[in-house]
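ok so i was messing around last nite and threw this chain in just to see what happens. nothing serious, just curious
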Amino acid sequence: MRSILYKFPFFAVMLNTVAFAQATHQRTADSINAYDQFMSSVRQAFEKDFSTASIIILVSVIILVVIAVVFYEVRRANRVKQELLALAWRKFEFSAQKFKLDQSSIALLKDIALESSLQDPDSIIRSPNVFENSLEKYYKSKKIESMPKEKLAEIRNLRKAMNFLPLSREIAFTSTRQFASGERCLAQIPENEPATHKGMCQILDSEELNWTITRLEGPEVPAGTWVSMNFTRPGDAEYTFRAQVLRDSNEKLVLSHANRLNRAQQRNWVRIDVKISVEVTQIDGDNAGDIFFGKIIDMSGGGLGMALPVKLQNGANLKLNFALPGHGQVDKLLVKVVRVAGQYSNDPSKTVHSVAFEGEIRAIQEQIIQYIFEKQRQDSMVRHS
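result:
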């Protein structure tokens, strides 16, 4: 009896183990059956033959979804573009008011900008070259020969109001419309040898439709004759171009305008006084050296003058970082010291250094030239006011 009682717990454990095994087997079998059923449904879905109509409907739905997404993105991009353009036109209006242009002049300037499809209309006020290129397209579209004289005179006055006439020597000529009266140029008529007229002449007048020069001694010049011209502007460059005689009358030659001018020599850069803080890093080969702070005291399209707290050697290579007021940040500008002058008059603890630009600096150079032009124009406005 006692042995049976001892064995009872063992039998109970065995019975529980058998019951658990049966239940586990049943759940495993159920899981396997469920998995088989799932895989069977997947195979049936892939092996099922869809009708042609079903395939067409599915493809059409996908195409419509793609078209809807593309249409939405195009509309969104256009909306952003319109908002940016509206902002640019508000900037244009603000810049035009700074020059105290009347509503008629602003409307005319806006027409010129619209005709050339400028994405940045404010640039037509900031840059005389943008203005000139836009005006050329405007004249071709409106046919300048048929435009009223009053409209052409208004455009001429617009040049003067924006200080595009006379043109700053820091900005290169791109058209003979930018020439001012009183300048002298060399003319050869006709443009090919043998010449019947050759010598210096004076620009008498320059209008939007044509310009006139003093007549050289010699026989009458037939209309349509091509003239070879050479114009030298001190402090800038020598320009060569060709123009056509429109008429020979009253001791003067009336010429067509030219917008293809060849610059023959490097300009002597106009230099202006500034006060701009600059961070200077000495460069030794590929290694950066000491970093110190100074001040840019003058600036041109070819280089800078700086007052620095140290005295460097000629030929020293430097890297500059500074903010150009109203024209963004200039970073990692490479320059070389070309001259070390004496003490800076405003601060004897600093030494004046002249540096020239190095490497590929076209974009930065244009940025600096534009700043110089803007500052000259602002200074001119202050003097006139």
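not much to say yet. Residues 190 and 227 are 5 Å apart (CA to CA).
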